[in-house]
Amino acid sequence: MARANRNLKMPWQIRIADTNPGPEFHWLNRFFPKPEVGGCYRQIPREFWDAPPFTLKCPNAHVHVIPRPKELKSDEDGHLYWPCPTCGEKAQGAVQFRLLSRFEDNPVWWDAKRGQFTPQGAEYIEGNLALLTGAPRANLYEGKWTNEEGVIYEQWDPAIHIIDKAEGIEWYFGAFDKGLRHPGCLQVWGVRGDTMTRVLEVYRTEQNIDWWAEQVQKANHRFELQALVCDPSEPEYIAKFNDMLGERRGRDGSRIARRAVNAILTGIDLVRWGLSVRDGGPRIFVERGSVDGLDPKRTAQMKPACLEQEIGSYVWKKAQPDQPLKETPDPTCSDHACDTLRYASFFLWGRDMGPALKPRGYDWDSFGAMLGHDELRQEILSGAAWER
Question: What percent of the chain has pLDDT over 90?
């Protein structure tokens, strides 16, 4: 859309985008002001012309509407910016606003004098759009930005699952999904009891194995990872990560980097259980501001660039005519962070993660184990046998 701003006949350039409401994390809904931050109007007020809203957008996707600064700052490359009020990053600004239109604004559908739908409006809107269900009804009839129909994680609610700060974290582990042309994703999860909170996410395209190994090393230095469950189809990444992490073992005695379990439907069920507010839930949380920047390429392509942006458009594959329905995610969805979340959920809840056992001195089927020598060995090592 920006490439079309080349008609220099006027002293200013205007871009207009017109759309129906769609998924919550649609790029237009993310990058244009929402009603709660201002800059949204049913009609442009008179004072707009004297003090137009100045919309700031920073690399971390924070959007603010502020009075237009009298003088913007300039960085070393000559780009104008203003510090983001939330994170302090360099934010770009523009006079940008959103006009909220309704059926009543269209004289084809609404008779303003009578205050009711026209015959065409009654037939189309009340006779067709009102009969829709799910996300299409919310988008097209109610005017709400709602996630797509068939969304896999319908339990996801940003108001519930995105929190300001994780408290009482007991230990940390990581999850990794490899990507090159498509994004790779590294997440760090903090565990407290049976809950897990994402405290770091690195989501990037076109980065090689050495770059990802460096990110793993940084995450381990910061959080002291007890495990790193990795895309099982990439054993060379696992070997590289373990080389970088040395011989340190995790809380279960295994090397830090290991294969993730790629049971798709079971993993999805575990994520849905973790997101659910039933039975003492939810158990999955995302710490606000824990994404290590947004991938500029994905942002320029107007595609999801983190878990929060992917999860609302992660949908089931639609059944084809005359073919049996198979429960499988739509392969066209952005799923890189969602796959990483699935690895993490299976690791935490799909196995016993109680206190680490002491290493056995004898295999379970050996005579030493049958005669109880392992217990005696542990006593000798601990010094308890000498006390007797």
Answer: 30
